[in-house]
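QA checklist item 7 of 12: single-chain prediction sanity check.
[x] sequence parsed
[x] length recorded as 289
[x] structure emitted
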Amino acid sequence: MFLTWESRENQGLIHKILHGLTGSIFQNEGNDACKNLRETRPVGIRIDRLNKSFGSNHVLKDICLQIEPGETFSIIGPSGTGKSVLLKLIVKLISPDSGEIFIDGQPVFGSSQDDSAKDYRYSMVFQSSALFNSLTVGENVGLWLREKRICKETKIREIIREKLAVVGLQDTENLKTSELSGGMKKRVAIARSLAMNPDLILYDEPTAELDPINSDELANTIIKVKEKTKNTTVIVTHDLNFALYVSDRIAMIYDGEIIEVGTPAEIKGSANPTVRGFIYTTTKGIKGE
């Protein structure tokens, strides 16, 4: 299988998630009924004075956030302000210099905790979708289930069809990923993340490289997924219109700091000049209202 450098990196991250975040909560892996693959339950996230530097570049500066169970919470801001770094910290792909993240009340980085103590599941949808080009759509969606031997093959196939239907891709399981549009690839990546019934799902720049029509379709897909699963959803995006449409609340990060948190209406009505400048440059028309 030929992989680009980017896909090698992203698939390495997927491998880390598959092996490092979820396996310990499943015990009876051969059970045909998948009784351990319970329905989702929303989890809360508390970020407490989080700092991260790369060399002399202080990317995140005393970040504090509270994300409520079941929220769709978006983190917006210009490119290079630390949005994706924060997302990678939440899923423990990198470690902070200081501070802590609590998910479902459990510290992510606390020395007294390990993954076996965590009773929640989370998954991440990567910016590039990070699908395996040599696998079919169905094989991509069922990857985690087969990797972890969660249940028997007949049940796995049923789950694959169910998750593809949720994202509006019925009868596509035998297609190759090379046959898909950019928007369809994003939805397959979401279906793959849904296969584990995550309590928390995270999206990194979900509308990247999508045209406005596909972005709207993806937004409606994410809303539909949320209505069905009731899980906690965290989205990192520079696409303000997208965030305003799908989110319960939004935080704006600028120069490594959280400068505003509020509902979409509160963000649009913000008096903060940096927030208003970002709104104007990304929506073209709110300035001066």
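[x] summary fact logged: The longest helix spans residues 212-229.
[ ] second reviewer sign-off
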